[in-house]
Specification:
three-stranded mixed beta sheet; alpha/beta; 120 residues; four-stranded mixed beta sheet
Length: 120
């Protein structure tokens, strides 16, 4: 059994929101850029709507109960280098995030919290 905590995890509130968004939009993906305004806010898109490339790193394929396929979590390589020794916890907070992220009309936004990983 793997003794290491996952690199990326969802809080129960975030998992609930992912289930609702999946019901409305189908397969999903996250992308966390290093942008100045929404740098701590991962963006949620229909899977494949955000084009990833060599400048992005696939950090996780999140298994969410009630969602039939993994939800991929991508991060820009420059952001990954800054956060490479952290565990990312995706949460939901009140407020309006980016208009491009699927949760924007819900009056909430995803937020990334981080914890330093031990010995990693």
């Amino acid at each position: 059994m793997d003794q290491h905590p996952p690199r990326v995890e969802l809080t129960p509130k975030a998992a609930d929101l992912v289930r609702r968004l999946h019901a409305d939009h189908g397969p999903l993906m996250f992308h966390q850029s290093g942008g100045c305004c929404d740098g701590s806010a991962p963006m949620c898109y229909p899977d494949g709507e955000f084009r990833t490339g060599d400048s992005d790193v696939l950090l996780a394929e999140l298994e969410v109960e009630g969602v039939g396929e993994p939800v991929t979590f991508w991060m820009s390589r420059s952001q990954y280098e800054a956060w490479s020794r952290t565990r990312l916890i995706i949460d939901v907070v009140p407020g309006r995030g980016s208009g491009f992220s699927l949760e924007a009309p819900e009056g909430v936004r995803f937020l990334t919290r981080s914890r330093v990983m031990e010995g990693g």
